[in-house]
Amino acid sequence: MPPASPVASAPASITHYENFPVASWLCPPRLRAPIAAIYHFARTADDLADEGDHCTEKRLAQLQQYAADLQQLGSAGEAAMLMRTSWPHVFGPLAVQVQTHRLPKRLLADLLSAFEQDVRMTAAQTRYTDMAQLLDYCRRSANPVGRLLLHLYGVVNAKTLIQSDAICTALQLINFWQDLSQDLPRQRHYLPDADLARHGLVRSAIKPEAAALTPELRSLLGELNRQARSLMIHGTPLVHQLPGRTGWELRLVVQGGLRILDRLDAMQGRNLYQRIKLSKLDMVAMLWRAVRM
């Protein structure tokens, strides 16, 4: 369940929240504290949803309490909440940043709703029926991170929000297609039913240990890669809207996502069996492309 940041250090692979610019030297010093507070909020919620041996009911109960504590920030009951919360190391720093930077709690709550959905769908082995449903998940699991960072940078208008959403959604989709070999055995199915059916595929046959790379399956995975690439390119003009080092950081993020797509295309569906990682040579190519932007 990894939301992806459009203003983040270029990762060797896009997983969890490591693409957050928690302590990046490219991140303006004045924004390191609020970005770190957002990171720890999201990372802790992700761990509640995904780590340990808790049952589904326990995970959901913790996420719901976490969401309730979030809503107390900035209210008359904030002090009492900070005294009793199980996560003072998260909500203490976050409370300061919400007040200082007027962070929209709605965006933070959207992240939690995506985590809760993932827990419920994994437990029930529910699948995404179509791409619209999967993109709605991305809207809540990935796009809020970009919007929060744009809020901190003070670059918020209709165009930049659309471009940020495109990059964040692209990064989330890239993460899904990069991680097929790991997600499918864990009963996490992000390939939408409608797309499978359109290519004449049956979900039960798509297992890393058994799936044959048929022309239909290669066609589906190639199509999904092209969709993610189209979204990334649509959001690319945002790199010119962000000032100084921040714009350079975003260039590296965009090029990192595009480089992973290059590697996925070259694998021609073998990402069902293995997860790619970017090499030092890939990093050089990303830096060169970032400069050319």
Structural write-up:
64% of the residues lie in helices and 0% in strands. The chain is mostly helical. The longest helix has 24 residues, at 244-267.
* First-to-last CA distance: 30 Å
Average of pLDDT: 87
Number of strands: 0
Choose one word for the global shape. globular
Q: Which percent band covers the strand fraction?
A: under 5%
Structural class: mainly alpha
Number of helices: 13
> What's the helical proportion of residues?
55-70%
List unreliable stretches of 5+ residues.
1-23
Order of helices and strands: HHHHHHHHHHHHH
The Cα radius of gyration reads 19 Å
Please give a quick description of this structure.
The protein is an all-alpha fold and 293 residues long.
Summarize the topology.
Blueprint (H helix, E strand, L loop, with lengths): L31 H19 L5 H17 L5 H7 L3 H14 L3 H20 L6 H11 L1 H11 L4 H21 L1 H4 L9 H6 L16 H21 L8 H24 L12 H13 L1
Helix pairs in contact: 1-2, 1-4, 1-5, 2-5, 3-4, 5-6, 5-7, 6-8, 7-8, 8-11, 8-12, 11-12, 12-13
Which key terms come to mind for this protein?
293 residues, mainly alpha, 13 helices, globular
